[in-house]
Amino acid sequence: MHNLLERAGYRPKTVALGVAELDQATPADPEALAPLLQAAGFELLRGRAEQLTEQIKTVLADYLEHLRTARSPLTTSAFLTDRFAATYSHLSKVFSRTANLTIEKYLIRLKIERVKEMLSYGELTLNQIADQMRYSSGQHLSNQFRQVTGYSVSEFRRLMLPERLSLDALA
Predict the structure, then answer these.
(1) Which residues pair with 22 in a beta bridge?
(2) Strand pairing partners for 21?
(3) Which has more confidence, 5 or 117?
(4) pLDDT value at position 131?
(5) In CA terms, which of 49, 65, 77, 128 is 20 to 30 Å from 85?
(6) What secondary structure, in 3-state letters, does 70-99 show?
């Protein structure tokens, strides 16, 4: 990332995972920078709302692990408000406006991608996966899986489609 910015004529002060700080003497032109970042597989976040939305996505990925491992998992809203100094209502509004998707729908997509991963390993039954992902039943998971993917779980297993999405592509 550092080299990319330098080749584009910018003088980065620091570059860390997901963040680049430019030297103040270097004027940043977001319209010129965005295509360079996209070509390298990155995305320019233009405002606080977009930054918050990306942070929420990251925390929701952590929430999936919490769901899987916690004895008595927190609700989505409690988990998010524990991580941010904001109400769930505010987080939800910002996320929906920025991602054009509700937190709940994003979380469902995230869970289904995790379910695809678990199915591809072939180690667990559907009911075991449903239990780990905190679905009320294997049938509930199966219904939601079909709704999101267009395939039944058994069709997915039979075809073993490599249609998993990167987490960035979920929105």
Answers:
(1) 12
(2) 14
(3) 117
(4) 94
(5) 65
(6) CCCCCCHHHHHHHHCCCCHHHHHHHHHHHH
Burial of 132 (0-12, 13-18, 19+ CB in 10 A): middle
Written as one letter, the residue type at 9 is G
90 vs 52, 59, 87, 127, 135, CA distance in Å? 11, 16, 5, 35, 26
What are the tens digits of pLDDT across the range 47-78? 788 889 999 999 999 999 999 899 999 999 99
Bridge partners, 16 (sequence order): 19
How many CB atoms lie under 10 A from the CB of residue 82?
9
- Check: CB of residue 150 under 8 Å from CB of residue 159: no
Give the C-alpha separation, 110 to 114, whole Å. Answer: 6
At 81-114, the pLDDT tens digits run 999 989 999 999 999 999 999 999 999 999 999 9
Name the token pair of 59.
């925390």
Q: Is the dihedral of CA 43, 46, 47, 50 positive or negative?
A: negative
